[in-house]
Every structure is written in C-alpha cells, then in structure tokens.
Amino acid sequence: MVLGAVLAFAAHFRPWEGGLLEEWALARDWQFSGGWRVMYAYIEWTISRPLHLFPTMLGLAIAGGSPAGIFVIMGVVAAAQFLAVMWALRPISRSFWLSAAVALFIALHPLWPAGLLQRFLPAQTAALALFVAVGFAIRWLQRGRARWLVGTCVTLILGFTFYPGPAVVAPLMALAVALAVRASWKRRIAVVVAATGSTGLMTLYSIVIVRLVTPAGTNSYELSNIESSAVKGAHDLLRYIAGTIVNFGVPLILGILAVVVLAAVLSLRGAIPNNAGWLMAGVAILSPACAVVFFGSTAWLQDIDRIGYTTSLALAVALMIWPITAQGVPRKLDATFASAMAVLAVVGCLIGIAHWQPFVQTQHRLLSALAPVLKEATGDQAVVVVDRSGTFGNLYTFPLQYLQGAAVVADHDLSKVWLCFPESGQYPVPSGGITCDPTATGLNLRPAGTLALAGGDVDFYIGNVDASDLAIKESK
Predict the structure, then answer these.
(1) How far apart are the first and last CA of the chain?
(2) DSSP states of 282-311 as a string?
(3) CA dist 271 to 20, 257, 292, Å?
(4) Residue environment code for 212-227, b if the CB has 16+ CB neighbours within 10 A, otherwise e
C-alpha cells in the first residue's frame, strides 16, 4: 500500500514545472492581493462550487504563493485516491493485489493525462470524494447501517462543492455497486436514490439557488456559460460528445474496448460471474454518456480534457466491479491480470507526463528570455512581446494574457507585459488574443531582444505604453 501511494504522489509532484495556465494568475493574486482573500475575490465565479479554489489556495499557502505548492496537494490527493480505493474495496475484495492494481490504475489515470495538470486539482479532489463514497456505499449494502448511507450522500455533495463533474457518474456508480454487491433490493434502491438525490440537490443549488442569491447583473461561471453557449438539445449534446471522443479521444476509445474485452475474458474464465461481466461491460460502454454533465457549454463538450475526466471516472467504476465480484480463481490468473494493469497504469502515466513537457518547456523558454528584458524596463515602462512564431496565445501557451501573471510570479517583476500578434502575420491570431504592431504605432518603443523559435521570432520591445496605445483589437 505504501508503494502504491508513493507512486501516485510522485507522479503528481513535479514542482519544477511551475504553473501552466490559471495557476499563474492565481499565484500572482495570492502574492499581491492578500493570500486567502483571493477566494472571496473569485466568489462570483465559484459560488456554484464554493470549495473549488480551496485545494489550490492551500497549495499556494504551503509554498508562499508559488505554484510549486499546488503540486504538493496534487500528490497528496493522488495518494489519497489510491488509499481510498483500497479502503473502499477492503470489506469485499478477495485479493489484495487485485485491489492494489485497480487502485493504482485509478490513481495514475493513464487514460486522462489532464489529471496531471494543476488546473484539474479541484476535479481530482471531487474524484477522491467519489471513491470514498464507493466505500460508504459498499458498507451500506453489506451492513445496512444508516451512517454509511448518510456518509455516501455527504461525501458526494462535499465532492461536488469542489467540482460538479462527477454529478452524472455518481448515480451510475451507485447503480453499478448496488448490482455488484449482494444485498437486498431495499438497500440497493436506497443507495441509488441517495446518490441520485445528492446529484439532484447539487444541481438545484448550482442552477436555481445560485441564480436567486447572485446579485442582479452578475452570474456564476456555470450560469454565464449556460446563458451564452448551452447546447440546443439532446441530439447536439450527443453529437458534440461523440465528435470530441472520435476526433481527440482515441486512448479513451481503446480504454473502453479494453475494459469490455477484459469483462468478457474474466466472465468466460470464471473469474467473475456472468452478470458481473455484463455489468462491467455495460458501465464501460455508457462511460462517455457521463459527459452530459457539461451540457452548459459547447466549448466544454469539445474539450477532451473534460470529456476524458468523466469517461475515465466511469471506467474506474467499471474496473472496481472486478474485485467487488471476483470469485475463486487461480492466483496465477489474478496475478497476471493485476500485474498487466499495474504496468499499463505506470507506462500510461509516464506517457501523460511526457505529453505536457513541450508546453512546459515552451513556457519556460519564453520566461527565461523575458527575464532580462523585464530587468531593463524601468518605472512605468511596459514590455511588449510580439509573437511572430505562431507558438503562443493558445491553451497552455499563455492565452488571454496569462503571460503577465507568469512574469510576475516567475521573474518577480511587476512590469506590465503585453503579448501581441501581428495582424497580417504568417499565423492567425489566437482566439482571444490581441493584435498590435509596435513598429507602426509611432510610440517610443525600442527593441530589447529576440527569441528565435522554430516557427519564427518572438520580439521584445520596451516603452511607456498601455493597452489603449497599441491599437488593440480582440480576435474572435
């Protein structure tokens, strides 16, 4: 158990990477806007999930405002996920090693590389709550004590306050566990109703109650997206999910097929009952449908990182059916399957870590080149960064002026930084980016260096400018 928890922690503890997206701005605000008071400043956006920023703020508090501290909390949450799955399965699993392999696969989430990023720490915390709820549900089904049923509800609702992404997975989890564990139908129905009721309560709060208590003219993050970009109907909802998975989620498709094949093999070999095999395969096949929780925005439904989150959570539930229903089988078969799963988990996680390194290195390269330019700027002078390489301004490469926050945190310099893109350049201006041409503004901007990249140059300028001086217009 210790080894599994250490592996999960180590995979998520990578403080040398620094920030990557929103954490740059959050770290800047923590350092210069009053620490924990930052949570209150963001309350308008997070009121529908009030604890959303708590794990991130805790990490910043540990490291004095550095994004490196967020990795500490990520590691702790990942290790806790491993231990939570082990605890959940302990009363019912016949094989320690099988439980450990499933727990390691879940904690390393090889089918969801986005879980290795700081921005998904709240989602990982909500997933931890879901796995604890599995343990409560199993104990309720076995023993029938009300405290276990109450624990299931409370844990799920608590998890939703960090991130509501598991809201559809939760009822599916309760149904799958209820059918997998031997119990009376009364207990089975009770746990499904409890999980569904928890989801319904959180949905009521997020969409209805938040709207009533939010001041006029303002909206939460979710409500703002629902009003501006919600899907038109069920057909569009399913089309977006299917399109995203087909176009960007090949690993997810392979993972679903693998779980279905595993269920068939286990059933045919007598490792699990036939009905458990059907249940395991059914949950895997239904796993993409859990992404309907993102109905509030077409952008969310086209984001493979979000779709991968709910799909991988449902697949985790499918895998847990195996140790829950395992019956007497040769230890060699158990060991073979468990070892293969553990190896796949570690290899998949390493591939996921490697996937993000080009983005990390690209950001670090720009920040390193920017540091001496910032030192050269004095007083109210700003640094204008003109990207002619087509590299920056996209997701994970400083979109929406996140470079400003990154410069403050990484280089400890409060000078203004503007990331701009030539309007008539070789590459299209990123969505949400700003266009500017410092050489044609007539302002007293002087060249301060160049960073050569594969796609072209990134030029630095210094001058007394602000946004209104640069003939800025937002790219749609």
Answers:
(1) 50
(2) HHHHHGGGGGGGGTT-HHHHT-HHHHHHHH
(3) 44, 19, 33
(4) eebeeeebbbbbebbe
Helix (H, G, I), strand (E, B) or coil at 457: strand
pLDDT in tens, the chain (476 residues): 899 999 999 999 999 999 999 999 999 999 888 888 888 878 777 888 889 999 999 999 999 999 999 999 999 999 999 999 999 999 999 888 899 999 999 999 999 999 999 999 999 999 999 999 999 999 999 999 999 999 999 999 999 999 999 999 999 999 999 999 999 999 999 999 999 999 999 888 877 766 665 655 555 566 666 666 667 788 889 999 999 999 999 999 999 999 999 999 999 988 899 999 999 999 999 999 999 999 888 888 999 999 999 999 999 999 999 999 998 666 676 778 888 999 999 999 999 999 999 999 999 999 999 999 999 988 778 888 999 999 999 989 998 778 989 999 988 878 888 898 887 778 888 887 888 764 443 367 888 999 999 999 999 988 876 555 554 443 43
Residues 6+ apart with CB under 8 A from 343: none
Strands (E), 124-282: none
Distance CA 396, CA 406 (A): 12
The structure tokens listed for 46 are 């997070």
Instruction: Give which of 30, 45, 34, 119 is closest to 409, Cα–Cα.
Output: 30
Q: How far apart are CA 192 and CA 319, in angstroms?
A: 19
CA angle 306, 312, 314 (to 5 degrees): 110
Helix (H) or strand (E) run with residue 446 in it: strand 446-453
